[in-house]
Amino acid sequence: MSVVIYHNPDCGTSRNTLAMIRNAGIEPTVVEYLKTPLTRGELAAMIADAGLTVRQTLREKGTPYAEMGLDDETLTDAQLLDAMMEQPILINRPFVVTSVGTRLCRPSEVVLDILPAPQRGAFVKEDGEQVVDAAGQPAGKSREP
To answer: What domains can you pick out in the chain, each with its CATH number?
Structure first.
């Protein structure tokens, strides 16, 4: 079961996503993309595999997004990718790649849709929100009989 998470340990969403992967009994390959940047080709492929546009993967908060004028709708995907390669903090996170698919896991529980193994027990996010119940089922959803 190969699972890769493009992770920023300073991001709560990224930490929660990593913890949910581990709650499924999977030890993923953790790529701290700010320390080990992706290539342009890897980033473009991951965005396409997730079914997103380049603009949808741009992070605005806590980044030089505004200073770089990236809100300009006339910028091309190539120009946006250039900015993301220059400033990797502009890449929204976390991306997770599994045999089931690739997702930008915002919110973190999106990862549950692509994990190749079920949750092994309850999971509560850092903010106290219960995502998975004690039976390993999404919280608030009834189980099949």
So the answer is: 4-117 (3.40.30.10)
